[in-house]
Amino acid sequence: MTCKPCGRVRMLGTRRNLCKAVTTAMLVTLFLGSFLVSPTPPKSPRTADEEEVRIVCWAVTAPKYHETRSRAVKETWARHCDQHFFVSTKPDTYLGTLVVNVTENYWMLWGKTRAAIRHAYENYREAGQWFIKADDDTFVIVENLKNMLKLYDHRKPLYFGNKFQMKNISQGFMGGGAGYVLSRAAVKLLVEKGFPNKTACHPGPKGREDVELGKCLEAVGVVAGDSRDHLGRDRFMSFTPDLLQERGALSRVGHSWFWTLVYYPTSEGPLCCSDTAVTFHYVSPAMMRALYYLVYVLRLARPHDPAPLLPPSLNASLS
Fold first, then answer.
1. What is the rounded radius of gyration, in angstroms, for the C-alpha atoms of the chain?
2. Residue 163, class by beta-carbon neighbours within 10 Å (0-12 exposed, 13-18 middle, 19+ buried)?
């Protein structure tokens, strides 16, 4: 699929990035069209209704991405969380950042994650039944996450995501890029039993966040659940939909590691992804806004829908 009109548009960045965003957006409508939702975000905070799934979201970011990636997250899917905050090393009043005093690099993400989980537990444990971590280039479809979590009890220690395998973590661990969601019980165990135990959980800030979290959760008895749908299709995706829809694309662009780590059998092509997908990763700000429009704003007309209203100029002339 090509994107010829993109060659004349420069406002959102380079032509290549915009073409990729638009092309991906066109692809994602093929399997997101069945669950387009209202563009009106839920009111926050929610009522304390046990029948209703309540989600607290946090996005891990860095100062250099505050004005681009993080702003796109805040102005799109984060509005659909019951509560949300950002984790960074510098304050930002617009984003509402939790400031963590660590060196800003990939190997210090474990320090950010520990701080975020503790912050969520201390400030949102009554407001949230489930807690999802995302990167600043992760797109989350919150309503589909809530729908999936109706199957599970937040009072049990569970977590879900895109599951990977590792020799020293018998139940596997959830990759950080696709995001992972923890039950209230899992967060409680982490903070009260895991973090104080230096044997169970690595005490310092340095480490691969998703691996260290996987070790810690297994040590305190949190179950790594299966987030796939009833057909075995993934809901949490570590890549953008255009790469997943094209057979051989992941290996071609240097992501062959995925096939050695992924826990469950995974397909490429049209059957790659659930039609109740929850997350995609490596999403640029332009793509994030495009996906948001397609999922939350675009309305799919049905055969029995009434005819649309006329444009304002024609309405006036015919009245």
1. 20
2. buried
> Treating both helix axes as pointing N-terminal to C-terminal, what angle do 15-32 and 285-292 enclose, rounded to 10 degrees?
30
Residue 63 tokens, joined: 């100062």
Rounded Cα distance between 229 and 148, Å, is 9
According to the 3-state scheme, what is the secondary structure of 123-151?
Answer: HHCCCCCEEEEEECCCEECHHHHHHHHCC
Distances in Å between the alpha carbon of 233 and those of 22, 217, 271?
A: 24, 25, 7
* CB 102 within 8 Å of CB 205: yes
Q: Kindly report the backbone phi and psi dihedral angles of residue 106, in degrees, each rounded to the nearest multiple of 5, phi listed first.
A: -55, -40
Q: Report whether 75 contacts 50 (CB < 8 A).
A: no
Number of residues that make up the chain:
319
CA-to-CA separations, 50 to 115, 126, 158, 277, 300, in angstroms, rounded: 27, 11, 18, 24, 32
Q: How many CB atoms lie within 10 A of CB 182?
A: 28
Contact predicate 72/289, CB 8 Å = yes
How far from 99 is each of 60, 114, 128, CA to CA, in Å? 11, 12, 21
- Give the span between the Cα atoms of 89 and 127, in whole angstroms: 25
CA 63 to chain centre: 20
Express each pLDDT in 49-58 by its tens digit: 456 899 999 9
Bridge partners of 159, per DSSP, are: 182, 224
pLDDT, tens digit (0-9, with 9 covering 90-100), for 148-158: 999 999 999 99
What is residue 316's predicted lDDT score, i.e. its pLDDT?
Answer: 60
Per the CB < 8 A criterion, the answer to whether 49 and 41 are in contact is: no
Instruction: Tell which residue, 220, 224, 231, 221, has the closest CA to residue 210.
Output: 224
CA distance 116 to 61: 12
